[in-house]
Each structure stands twice: as C-alpha cells, then as structure tokens.
Write a structure and sequence with these properties.
heterodimer; A: alpha+beta; six-stranded mixed sheet; five-stranded antiparallel sheet; 16 helices; globular; B: mainly alpha; three-stranded antiparallel sheet; 3 strands; 3% strand
C-alpha cells in the first residue's frame, strides 16, 4: 500500500502539471491571439453586429474622417476620391474583403465589442448601440501625396514609419480600389485585396546587403579595414559566378565604398566567408522568419531560407537574390532600427480610441519589438547608409538640408512569361532627431532602384518633412 | 480523521454560490422572450437537487465526498443551462439523462462501497464488454468518421463509454491482487481486445483514454517505471501508425497544425470555436447574448467554447478548476485507502475523467489535435452522462469505504486509549 501511495502521488503531480499547462495555455492563447481570432472575416458576429450597431468613425491622425455611418445607417467614406483610393487598404471595406483594413481588423472597437461596464449600462437605457471612434496614426493627406507621386504605370508599396514611436504614418499599396464603389472591386485587377506594404513578399534585391553588412560587422572584427578587389565578376563554383550589374567592376574598394556602391563581389565573398548559419542568425534577429502579429496590424513574415547549402546560392543570397523574400513594412522597420540605435519599435496603427461615452484610450507606450543589432553596429551601419546617399547608389534620395541614409536595391524578377524589368527598391531614413522617419519603397518592375525608387523616396521624405514643419 | 466526516462550514457557502448561479441563469432563460415556464421550474428544482444531494445524501452516507458531489452536479447544471440556451429540446432530454444518472451514481456508490466479491463478476463483465464492442462493429452506425453507436430506437448507445467503466473496475480488481504474468493474462487480453475493437470503430479519443487509463492504473499498482514508459512509447508508436493508417487522423492533425489553411472547409469548426471563445472575452457576452450556435456540434464536443463565449474566460477557467477539484479529491482518496482495490479504482476513475477533460478542452482551444470526446458531465449525451456518473459513483463508493475504514481505526484507537 505504501508503494501505491507513492505512485499515486506521482500520478497526482503529473495530472496537476497537465492541467496547469492547460489553464496556462488557455489563458495565454486567448490573451495573445484573442483579438485577432475575433477580427477574422470568418466571424459571423461582426456581420451580424453591423445590423444592430452603429459602427464608429475611422479618422486619420489629423482628424480627417475617413469612414463614418450616415443617418440611414449606411457606411460612407466622405473624402474625395483621390484620398479615398490612397488610403483604401488602410481603411478596408465593409464586407471584410480586405481583412487587414481597419474596418475589419479594428472591428472589435468600431462595433463596440470592447465596451466597458459603464458603456454597456448606458446602452441599456438609451437602447442604442454605438461603436467607438478610432483615430489612426496614418496621415491621409501625406498618403494621398504618395499616391500622386507614385509612378503611374507601376504597382508597388510604400511604408513610412516614425522609428522612435513605431507609429505608421503611411502604408500605401497599389493597385488601389475605391471603397465607395465596391462594384469596381472584384473584376478589375488581381491582387487588389492585398495590402502590398504589409503582405507583399518581394525579392529584396541589394537591400539585403544591410543584413549581410550587420552580420559581417558582428562576426569579422577586421572587416572594416579590409580592401576588396572587384573585377566585375567572381567565380563561386563551376556553375555559378557572381556578377555586378554593368560588369565593369568597382576596382579596389573599402567595405564602406563597397556598400555605398552596392558591390556584389565584395558582399558575395563576405556571405561565403560568414556561412549560411551566421547569416541566418543575423537575419532572424532582424525579424526574418518571425511572426509579426502586432496589436494593431499584422506584417507577413519575410523569409530567409532555412536549408541554404549550395555555395552559389549562398553567395547570391548575401547580395540579394536566392529564395529570400522581404515585406516592405518589415524593411522599413529594419531601417528604423538602424536609425534608432538597433532597436526595432513595435509598429502602431491606432493613435487613440474614443468610446461612445467620450472616454478616450490613447495608444500604448512605444515598445521595442526586437533588438536588431548593438548600438555600435547601428552606428557604423548608419555611417555607411549615409555614404550610400551622399556618394553612392542612393544619391537621388537626398533631401536638401537633411541627413538622409539609405540603401537601394534592384531585384531581378524571372517569370515564366519572359523577362521583366526588375523591382526597384529603396530603404532608408532621415537621421535627424526632429524628423524620425523611416521608409521602404518598392516599385514593381520599376527598373533601377537608384533611379526610380530612390528619387520617389526622396520626394516622399521631402513632403513628410515639410508637412511636419 | 473523524472531522472529515462532519460537515464543514464552507460547504454551505459553496452551495449558496452554486445555487445563486444556477437560479439566476435559469431565471434569465425564463424571461428571455415572454415567459418560459420550464426554466422557471428548473431555477428552483436544479438548486434543490444539488442541495438535496449534498445535505440528504450527506446524512445517509456521512462519508460521501461533498466536494466531488458539488463539483460534478454543478457541472451538470452548467451543461443544462447552456443546452437550454442552445436548444430547449436537447436540454429536456439531458435533464432525463441527468436524473437517471444520479440514480445510477447512487447505485454504483452503494455497489462499490458494499460489494466485496467483485472477483466473481469480473469475467462476466469482461465478456459483456467485448460482446458489446463487437456488436457495435456489426450493427453500429457511423458519425463523424467513427462507428461507435448502437441505435436502440429510443436511445443511441455508445458502448465504448461503458467499456471505460468496466475497464477501470477490472483493472483495479486484477492488478490489486494478481502479480504473475499468467494471472494477469485475462486482464491483458481483455484490455487488448477493448483497445483493438475501439480502434476498429475508429473512435480514437476513446482508444487513447482506454490505453492511458490502463497504463496509469498499471503504474499506480506496480510502480514499474520502465514498463510504463515502454507502454507510453507504444502509445506514441501506435498513434503514429494510426496517423498513417487513417485518413481522418491525418486530417485532424493537419487541421490542428493550421486550421487557417481552410477556414471555410476543414478548419471551420475549430476556427469558429476560437472565434467564439475570443468573442466572450474575460467576462463573457452574457447568457443568451452571444452566438455560439455557429460552432458545429456546440452542444456536445464544443460546449466549452459556448460556455467561454457567454460566461467568459474566467468561468471557463473555473470549469477547469472544478475538474481539478474532482481529480485532486479522488487521488487523495486513493492515497488514504487501505485496500489497494479501492485505491486503484479511484485512480482509474480519476484518470479516465481527467484525461477526457484534458483532451476535449485542449482540442477546443487548439492546444492538442481534436479528438471527439465529450466534456464530462457538461456535454449533451446520454451514454456520456451515465458513464461519467458511474465514474463518480465509483469515487463516492471508494470515499465511503475509506471513510468507514478510517472511522473504524479511529474507534479502535479510542477504545484502546480508554482501556489503558
């Protein structure tokens, strides 16, 4: 019997831990994912609630009303068409066809599901249920300007954030749609529902050299003093050789020059020297392969291949191509981290929420999402990115009177339908304390990053800085 | 020792709280639209049932465990409230099952506490169980990929639910006195047949429970780590084999891994369940104010999601806590028991109930792959209710036996004291 007693004690301990795990997981899962589960377009409660509840308004950061409910109970978008189209992916639509838009993603607030006890009591007396008004961090006027500046013939995305607070100032995706005219929505163009700034997975092009550079700075102590001999091509193995665009070669360059001029030979050989594991570790610390499920928005994961073995692919990965994909918003966050001493801030889309009784809940305090790199490495990266704008490939991103740092990319796209122009990339930020802006721009099939993307980013930055003044 | 048999003051307070909860809930249901008299009656009768059981039965059998009794009855009450809110007809049927269940529980209590010659019964019980399972394979009907029901016209019987009870009793009877391989052969054969036949019915939740109950009772009886771990390894290997053999197991696993891959198809149920849970928040939408009926099979397997939506996460955690009370009290009984038969009975009953709870709650919140088992005492279903009540009866019987044994020892000690 004594033996049995001892065994039963073990069974008891096992059961208790099992149920402790159960309760812990239950609480954690709901706490962590609850609002995202709730706001999926598959939640029939949302659609049902729209019949009973007057949804709250959606405003931009300056108080411009982007969506409201009129007397007849219909949802209207009372700004002029250009602005309506520019912010279309940010605002979303009534039917939940753009699930990342505020109309769906912030439905818990808009439809009053988060109401407190006082508000619920007030509803009992008035009989009317009104949701909360949501004020976004996005600047609708600025975003309209971005839409105007964006090359007319091309699709793409722009993400502009405040790298100190994580506030998202603009999140533009093209093709757009018009929320007021949903009939033009379906047949028109494929991929309209996608918010390319947060969900578009693009080959990052030479922008990825930021990651390779950080990895090299962290792992190779002497790398800054090295000189690379670039003859325009480098044979990696029998099948693959690295080439520079143009093929002329940069001659003898320091690491800083190699970065500013985006030298494939130097960065390809660095990638080979570092090896796939170290490169992946750095990439993952900067947010690759990670889930970005934030309170106010979801950013799809950027991918760094986990099974990188071939030398040739490794060398190409270090400079751009391979099976790498990156999401514009994520790259804007990486640029922000470089400007912010290595700290990537958690992005925020909601400035404040005002419930139907007038109570205002401000956005939560800025939080660090990830420590991407040490402050020291961030400092060096900062200098290199400034060099890329001042004397390198990103010169067109310069803004008079401001210190701009950046990196361009030109990502080859090979489609079965033949060869297209490459995607043009620019990722960068304004280094000054008064204008803590970080930006990522991708112009699909736009051609050279240094030409198209950098000049677009420069103009956007100029607008944003002028607007702030 | 004797103090345990006396009523403790906190029992009154717990009873009061439970009564208030049940009455208010039924009153809410009664005045939902117009006046509905059935819940009005239930608002009075359910608390009375609870109080009567705890106070009257407590007087008749002073060694019954009141905490287990209250937990189980409150869970039944909560189930009825939720069912009435979802579908009044189902709730009335469940009320019948509950009433019969209480009777069955009492019978089982007396049987376990007083019947001393179980070894006479074990062979017939084994035979009947195996026959029932075999019969199910022949004339059973299939639901949700498993062929585990016998349709009796007025009542659908799920034999595997009752076989669990038989298994617990036979395991306790044989493992408490037999040791050699030859002596354990009939039990081993019986257990293997049960598991094998239930595998053939493709009722994989029941398979897992039966296997793990065998393993746990075996471990409690012998303390043999090595063989128990080997058994666990077998369970893992067996699960892997079943995964490759049965397509619906593969499907369940892939749904568990990523239900969002097909939110309108295979993943629909679990996603709706998660959405329902998330819609309630900490304090729930309020009874009748949510829409849990969009979750398929919400009345049986997924009732936990409905409770979470309308009563809130906190009540969901409280439900889990009530099961913890049940199994902690049960295992404490097993530790106090003087007879190894009683100790093993308690271990078996507790393991069966708590594993089942873990599997379904874990499945509903997407912690483990979903296995179609019911939430004990709460889910709709006659077989499930009766089998859970039988398990409770076993535990109460053990409680009485243990209490009487303790009282005897206490009296002996006192008379010795008086003599000296």
């Amino acid at each position: 019997m004594k033996q049995i007693r001892k065994n039963v004690r073990a069974v008891l301990a096992l059961m208790l831990s099992l149920f402790a795990c159960l309760s812990g997981y239950f609480f954690y899962a709901v706490y962590d994912n609850g609002s995202r589960w709730f706001t999926t377009p598959y939640n029939t409660r949302l659609r049902a609630a729209k019949g009973r509840v007057t949804p709250g308004d959606i405003l931009d950061r300056n108080g411009v009303v982007l969506a409201t409910t009129d007397e007849s109970g219909a949802r209207v978008y009372p700004v002029e068409e250009r602005m309506r189209r520019a912010v279309s992916h940010v605002v979303g639509d009534v039917d939940g066809d753009v699930p990342t838009g505020a109309e769906t993603f912030l439905a818990a607030d808009l439809l009053g599901f988060r109401a407190g006890i006082a508000e619920r009591a007030a509803r009992l007396f008035s009989g009317e249920v009104r949701g909360a008004d949501v004020r976004l961090t996005v600047d609708a006027a600025l975003q309209t300007e971005i839409a105007r500046l964006f090359p007319e013939a091309h699709d793409g995305a722009v993400a502009l954030i405040d790298y100190r607070t994580g506030e998202v100032l603009a999140l533009y995706s093209k093709p757009e749609y018009d929320a007021a005219r949903p009939e033009g929505f379906d047949g028109s163009r494929e991929g309209v529902r996608l918010n390319r700034a947060t969900q578009g997975r693009y080959a990052p092009g030479s922008v990825f050299k930021i990651v390779t550079l950080v990895c090299a700075l962290e792992n190779l102590p002497d790398v800054e003093s090295r000189v690379f001999d670039c003859a325009g091509s480098l044979k990696v193995d029998d099948e693959v050789s690295l080439t520079d665009s143009g093929g002329a070669g940069h001659g003898r360059v320091t690491l800083k020059e190699a970065f500013a001029k985006s030298c494939n030979i130097a960065f390809g050989s660095l990638a080979l020297e570092l090896g796939p594991d170290k490169l992946r570790q750095t990439a993952e610390r900067m947010g690759f392969n990670g889930n970005f499920l934030f309170e106010d928005l979801i950013v799809y994961e950027s991918r760094f291949p986990k099974d990188l073995q071939e030398e040739g692919e490794l060398a190409w990965t270090g400079v751009d191509q391979g099976r790498l994909t990156a999401v514009p918003m994520h790259l804007a966050m990486i640029a922000g981290a470089a400007a912010n001493g290595g700290k990537m801030m958690q992005p925020q889309m909601v400035l404040s929420v005002r419930d139907s009784l007038g109570g205002v809940r401000d956005r939560s305090a800025p939080k660090v999402a990830q420590e991407c790199m040490s402050e020291e490495v961030a400092g060096i990266l900062n200098a290199y990115m400034i060099a890329a704008v001042e004397e390198g490939t990103a010169s067109k991103a310069a803004v008079a009177g401001e210190t701009i740092a950046g990196k361009t990319g030109t990502a080859q796209v090979n489609s079965s339908g033949g060869r297209y122009s490459p995607h043009a990339w620019y990722v960068g930020y304004c280094a000054s304390q008064e204008h803590p802006l970080a930006i990522a721009v991708v112009v699909e099939n736009g051609g050279s990053g240094g030409e198209v993307a950098a000049s677009l980013a420069g103009e956007i930055m100029r607008c944003a800085i002028q607007g702030a003044r | 020792m004797r103090s345990d048999a006396l009523k403790k003051p906190e029992v009154d307070w717990i009873l009061l709280a439970m009564t208030l909860f049940e009455s208010t809930a039924f009153l809410l249901l009664a005045f939902r639209e117009g006046v509905d008299f059935v819940p009005l009656i239930l608002a009075v009768s359910m608390p009375l049932m609870l109080i009567a059981q705890v106070l009257l039965l407590g007087r008749a059998f002073p060694h019954m465990d009141r905490y287990m009794l209250m937990s189980a009855n409150f869970l039944c009450g909560l189930g009825l409230i939720m069912l009435y809110r979802l579908d009044a007809n189902l709730a009335l049927k469940q009320l019948l099952f509950y009433g019969v269940g209480v009777m069955v529980m009492l019978a089982m209590t007396v049987f376990t506490a007083k019947f001393r010659r179980f070894s006479l019964l074990r062979l017939p019980i084994m035979a009947v169980s195996v026959l029932l399972l075999a019969l199910t394979l022949v004339i059973g009907k299939e639901t949700y990929g498993a062929k585990n029901w016998i349709d009796l016209g007025f009542f659908s019987l799920q034999p595997s639910e009752f076989v669990k009870v038989a298994l617990v009793m036979c395991l306790a009877a044989d493992l408490s006195r037999r040791r050699t391989i030859r002596q354990l052969l009939p039990l081993g054969l019986f257990a293997a047949l049960c598991v094998g036949l239930i595998v053939l019915q493709k009722d994989l939740g029941a398979v897992l429970i039966c296997f793990l109950v065998c393993l746990t009772v075996y471990y409690a009886a012998t303390g043999n780590w090595l063989l128990s771990l080997l058994g666990l390894a077998c369970a893992a290997g067996g699960s892997a084999a079943l995964y490759h053999l049965f397509d619906h197991v593969k499907k369940r696993v892939s749904i568990w891994q990523n239900p969002w891959a097909s939110p309108q198809g295979d993943g629909y149920q679990i996603i709706q369940s998660l959405i329902a849970i998330a819609s309630g928040g900490m304090t729930g939408t309020g009874l009748g104010l949510g829409t849990p009926q969009v979750v398929p099979v919400v009345e049986s397997d997924f009732i936990f999601a409905a409770i979470c939506e309308e009563f809130g996460i906190l009540v969901g955690l409280m439900v889990i806590l009530l099961y913890v009370v049940l199994f902690v009290r049960g295992l404490m009984l097993a530790m106090r028991a003087q007879s190894s038969f009683h100790a093993l009975l308690a271990v078996g009953a507790v393991t069966s109930l708590s594993l089942q709870t873990f599997m379904i709650v874990g499945g509903v919140i997407k912690m483990v792959p979903l296995t179609g088992v019911t939430l004990p005492f709460v889910s709709y279903g006659g077989s499930s209710m009766l089998s859970c009540m039988l398990m409770l009866g076993i535990l109460q019987g053990v409680s009485i036996a243990v209490g009487e044994q303790d009282e005897m020892r206490w009296r002996l000690a006192r008379s010795k004291e008086e003599r000296t």
